[in-house]
Design a protein that fits this description.
Helix content of chain B: 10-25%
Radius of gyration of chain A: 24 Å
Order of helices and strands of chain A: HEEHEHEE
Largest sheet of chain A: 5 strands, mixed
Number of strands of chain B: 9
Shape of chain B: elongated
Distance between the termini of chain A: 78 Å
Radius of gyration of chain B: 24 Å
Order of helices and strands of chain B: HHEEEEEHHEHEEEHH
Number of helices of chain A: 3
Structural class of chain A: alpha+beta
Largest sheet of chain B: 7 strands, mixed
CATH superfamily of one domain in chain A: Alba-like domain
Strand content of chain B: 15-25%
Number of helices of chain B: 7
CATH class of one domain in chain A: Alpha Beta
Structural class of chain B: alpha+beta
Strand order of the largest sheet of chain A: 1-4-5-3-2
Helix content of chain A: 10-25%
Number of strands of chain A: 5
Strand content of chain A: 25-35%
CATH architecture of one domain in chain A: 2-Layer Sandwich
Oligomer: heterodimer
Chain lengths: 151, 278
Amino acid sequence: MSDPRTPGMSSVPQAAPVHTDSTSPAVEMDPVEYTLRKRLPRKLPKRRNDVYVNMKTDFRAQLARCQKLLEGGGHREICVHGLGLAINRAINIALQLQASSQGVLQLAANTSTVELVDDLEPEDPDEAGEHLTRTRNNSAIHIKVFYPDPQ
Amino acid sequence: MFTGCGMITGQNQYLIRDAVRPLPGLEGSRPIQIEHGLPSGSFPVYHNQTYSNVVQPAVINNVSIPLKPVPLPVPPPALKLGQEGFKKVCRTEEDSPCPFPGLASGVLEMRVKEGSKIRNLMGFAMARMQGEKGISGGGVSGGGLRQVVFTGSGRAVTKTITCAEIMKRKVGSLHQLTKLQYKVVNEVWESSEGGASEMTVHRTVPSISILLSKDPLDPQEPGYQPPEALSALWEEREGVESSPQTACKRTLGPLPYSSFPHCKRACLGEGVSVHAPH
């Protein structure tokens, strides 16, 4: 096990460590190992009143940011965007904003599909495997939080 | 992961954790007093990352009990009722008003749950929307329903949107109306030791309803999306404000914020949490 290149080891290909060199018999059986690298979503519009919600920032910080934009920032409307898992949080922020405004604020939600690109990079640069990309779709939501126009 | 993510910014938020946990010896008496001394309605729980799964003990971020004033500013740690010796006995969803007033009663409603399989949902919904092709042969729009509603709450929200997006792509030229609301879920928790002690927890769960219609809908209604608005959303946005910051994509690196004056302004006063201009 310590040296997968030992000829005698070829009888136990399954047990060979995954990340060994290409000469390892296990690698010949397996397809080339890739690292999956997720690219960032493509360029998005960013106005002052666009808020992109993520799952890394503290929820309250993001909520406070939205509140600041609406109350202190003098914006009549803001757009809260969420992608994938952050959809839930984006909805939450929007609903919380609405609740804390005593129902004055209105919500207009739109959904969309965002194409995401994953890069597949071979683990080992000497490997024969080439660089691959794979696209997949993820759902997104865009919630306009706004004060309705006085009529 | 669930800690501190989401609570009402309101006032008078207290933690049940402090009411229950520090009293290990009194668990028989004190919690009961709490539970029975108050009407069940006074336990509003604002909970964001929902667990609609019945099997798992729910993680509750924030329970308000008017006994021990623990001010909210400290991010409350996730509270696991299950670890406190409580067991969830039943879970009922309160009927929320239909988000689409004036909708015909016979509309197909797809209730998306956390564990629903998209292929099952879509297989059923697509068949209904497209109608039985085999029977009528080639009626252009003769077969099939005109409208469908997808609803989902909590962790099923993403799946709900995905279903609607798939259907829009497959069927084409569908008008969409999206509505968001909170859904109230009542949970009854029972103490496993105390026997008779019960606690009702009200949780609010974000939910989404998406109406897809072959017939035109009111474009003035908030949340309306015209057909084939797939990429228009982005382009329209970019056109709205001749944004000078096309370069302001997610440069989270060592770039100083001063190179993005507008972003800096938006971040002012954010204090501890620094928002990178992304």
